[in-house]
TrEMBL record:
This is Helix-turn-helix domain-containing protein. InterPro entries: Bact_Cytoskel_RodZ, Cro/C1-type_HTH, Lambda_DNA-bd_dom_sf. Coiled coil: none annotated. It holds the Pfam family HTH_25. CDD domains: HTH_XRE (cd00093). Keywords: Membrane, Transmembrane, Transmembrane helix.
Length: 308
């Protein structure tokens, strides 16, 4: 017995029409008929075939996992498609990394110059402070040999006099404030501001179901995907290998939804209706590379590059 025939028999046994199954699964009637007849080639893609069969089986009371295992030879597989795309992504990543290499090395001369300038400033400040402290003595008046001056309180005042901790330097600046400002400047050099994450288009797809590639640069340790919809759409979300985050219809009732993909090097979106689904990754909104009004079905790969 074929998988489509078993699904049809289960539907008929429960006295369900194609229209009622369409209403439950949000799958168009012509795709339901194609599944029952085994015409998987007219479905939007291989990924859709497995997803639609799971939804159909659930609607008619069958176990989707057992059904797919029993008829695994009939259901279209997506391994070849994923392998080919993985090779293309790895090649794009190598090209991107190779182009970044010279740019990184070009920063070393600048860093060395900055370190030298800071060292010169510290040395100049040290010698200037030292020379200033040696010139603070006041001239001593020369007394006439025949003149005797007696000041009984002079020695006592000199013994009780204490240096001022906040004494100014010869240039009129407070030494404590100057040290503090210098320390703050050094901290700013050592702790630059964190670079915000960005989405960069690597390859724009084409055809009836365009497949595009993005690089998520400067990604944080925690990468969160936020999904929002104001209408009905279909979404398949995986890490390109064995991990499946979402598969099925996505409506306004499901919004908003957040999915944590931290630790994955890449993720794959299969969007059935692009105009009805807004995607935000690590706080950056994803702009569809192809006009969603013209190509509603789009596939998108995201390479996740952590902050350097």
């Amino acid at each position: 017995m074929e998988i489509g025939t078993k699904l049809k028999e289960a539907r008929v046994a429960q006295d369900l029409s194609l229209e009622s199954v369409q209403e439950t699964t949000k799958i168009q009637k012509r795709y339901l008929v194609a599944i029952e007849e085994g015409n998987f080639q007219i479905l939007p893609g291989k990924f859709y075939a497995r997803a639609f069969i799971k939804e159909y089986a659930t609607a008619v009371g069958l176990d989707p996992g057992e059904l797919l295992d029993e008829y695994q030879d009939e259901v279209p597989k997506t391994e070849e498609e994923n392998t080919e795309q993985y090779t293309r992504i790895q090649r794009s990543r190598r090209d991107t990394n190779s182009s970044r290499g010279p740019a990184i090395f070009s920063f070393f001369p600048t860093i060395i110059v900055i370190i030298l300038i800071i060292g010169i400033i510290f040395a100049a400040y040290y010698f200037y402070s030292k020379s200033s402290s040696g010139d603070t003595s006041e001239p001593v008046d020369t007394n006439d040999d025949n003149e005797i001056i007696y000041n009984p309180g002079e020695n006592e005042n000199q013994d009780n006099q204490k240096p001022d901790d906040g004494a100014d330097n010869a240039d009129g600046t407070d030494s404590a404030s100057k040290d503090e400002n210098q320390t703050d400047a050094t901290k700013e050099e050592e702790n630059p501001e964190k670079t915000e994450p960005t989405l960069e288009l690597v390859e724009e797809g084409s055809g009836p179901s365009p497949e595009s590639t993005f690089d998520l640069n400067n990604a944080g340790d925690e990468v969160i995907i936020k999904l929002e919809s104001d209408s009905n759409s279909y979404l398949g979300l995986t890490n390109g290998e064995e991990k499946e985050y979402y598969a099925g219809p996505f409506t306004a009732d499901d919004s908003p939804k957040e999915i944590d993909v931290s630790g994955d090097e890449r993720i794959y979106f299969n969007v059935g209706s692009a105009p009805g689904l807004q995607i935000t990754i690590d706080g950056v909104e994803l702009k569809y590379p192809v006009d969603p009004a013209e190509k509603v079905h789009q596939k998108i790969w995201i390479n996740i590059n952590q902050e350097q």
